[in-house]
Amino acid sequence: MGLGWGLHAQGKQSDSLQGTKVVLDEVFVSAIRVNRESPVTFSNLNKNQYAPRNLGQDIPILMNYLPSVVTTSDAGAGVGYT
């Protein structure tokens, strides 16, 4: 015969922000897309170009194949925090 019981040393805490309303200022996001006539260097990639190189790494590591792009990974494997 088995006897089971549990003991918890942590008490239940209430949510300190419950009922608190925080109003934030408006955020405006703007972007500019380059085209072939733009006087800057750019790379236009699609899924077919990434597929052969995708071994499960994060997107920044896959972008490492682009010219002038350098990425790092905290664990060195290309997954996690990149």
Which tags fit this structure?
single chain, 82 residues, 0% strand, little secondary structure
What's the topology here?
Elements (H helix, E strand, L loop, with lengths): L46 H4 L8 H4 L20
Describe what you observe in this structure:
This protein is mostly loops. The protein has a domain at 44-82. 10% of the residues lie in helices and 0% in strands. The longest helix is centred in the middle third of the chain and has 4 residues, at 47-50. It is flat and about 70 Å long. The model has no long low-confidence stretch (mean pLDDT 78).
Give a quick precis of the structure:
Helices cover 10% and strands 0% of the residues. With 82 residues, the chain is mostly loops.
